[in-house]
Amino acid sequence: MTPWQILCTFICAPHENFGQIKPISMSVRTYYHDSLPGATNLPHDSLPPAPSDRIATLGWQLWMLSGDNIDKQAAEIATEAGYTKPTDKINVLASETIESAGTESVEDKVKMTAKLQASKDHYTATTSSMVLIVDGKGHYDIEDPIENKWIRVILTPGVLMHIPQGAHTRVAFENPDGFLDVLMWFNENVAPSDIDWIKGEDTHGHPVRLNYLNELSTQR
Predict the structure, then answer these.
(1) Is residue 204's pLDDT more than 60?
(2) What's the domain count of the chain?
(3) Chain segment 154-174, per-residue pLDDT in tens
(4) Short name of one Pfam family for this protein (predicted)?
């Protein structure tokens, strides 16, 4: 049994470089967003769980890691999938005020993107990445553009996600004191200046968004 089989308690079906990683058991909580009006920090739980194969079809992968060395476990999985450029730990506070994001700082861009969620707008990443939740709790919504629905992922320590570029996402905290400590991994060939998140209507005509939708259409 390889290290990832021992370390992971859940992963969706193969995508990108995940072909050798097999499903084990689900412990990351996911469900369909009820799409009802209300604050983003409310549960919006429609009860039906989101099938793991559906999430994988959308280009996402989810793991739940446990133990005292989840950062090392995540690094091994990320490296196996081709994501070998790590960030330092990024602390995102729900109450933090950020005027502008630096053009070169990935940390500032992550914080700014999370802060913009007060407007309830979606956003999309210009590059794929792996993200580990080290501490904190939050809600993370994944768009299903085929079914015109949103899938909510409950973020808790140990959740590791592969986030495909071009996918629409949203993030929310449960309360004003909420926070997330995260580690991220990117492809070695991606420059910091190429790493960004685009918000709202600006995402729709972006090349990475159009390419993502085209890839989904070829799978139907």
Answers:
(1) yes
(2) 1
(3) 999 999 999 999 998 888 887
(4) ARD
